[in-house]
Amino acid sequence: MKWAITNQKTAEPVHLKTQGTILLEQQVEHMLVAVEHELRRSPAGVDELGLIKRLQKPPWRLIGAVQFHDPVQLYPVHFLLFHVLYRLWDMLAETGESVCISPLSIRIEQPVTGTTNGLPGTRDHLRDFYLDLSQYELPGDSIQQMMNDFWAGYRHTIPDDTDTLHAARALGFDSVPDTFSTVKQAFRRRVMQAHPDRGGDTKSIQLLNEAFATLKTHFSRTLERI
User: Fold this and answer.
1) Is the pLDDT of residue 127 over 50?
2) pTM for this structure?
3) Is residue 6 part of a domain?
4) Is residue 182 part of a domain?
5) Would strands 98-100 and 107-109 be described as parallel, antiparallel, or unpaired?
6) Which of 63-72, 75-84, 85-94 is least confident?
7) What pLDDT is attached to residue 13?
8) In 10 A of CB 100, how many CB atoms?
9) Domain encompassing residue 114
10) 8 A C-beta contact, residue 217 and residue 168
């Protein structure tokens, strides 16, 4: 498994931590779109391991190999997935939807009349825990290595200007956008449009995913030059 996590207690420059945080946030944004798409494909719900396995396969390939029996290896994947799920819950609340979050059943659902989206008691503590990315506890260089290994998709070369422009055009831009936030908004919109219920297919989503991975790498490289 390509986690590249070490136990070295070396001092890390502030700019590396900042870059690592931004890289992790980019990965979260990519997973937000992928998870929402997969949950809408399965309105009856899917369990946690099933969702992880979907994110490991085409068209996403956002998670590398995981030894599911090893808690040390499973924890980072579990934590990031649940962080994404709670972020998705907050995002969908704006449209009146909510997310049922449980290791055995994860699904998007409409709120029942007379109830609220708030989480009572211990569930509030869980939400706070998973939304706190400091609980992920990975140094910036480890995050960078994960991006290089497999999390940025399955591209293992640095995109040149032509690759980057083609990726931007695949997401509907005439040129490469100035900000990553603009890219992620377009990516989510295009993936929603490519949903099978709207006449889309897996191949279309794979092409969009490749384009987003290319632009994600482009903006990551831009950060390195700052």
Assistant:
1) yes
2) 0.63
3) no
4) yes
5) antiparallel
6) 63-72
7) 38
8) 13
9) 14-224
10) no
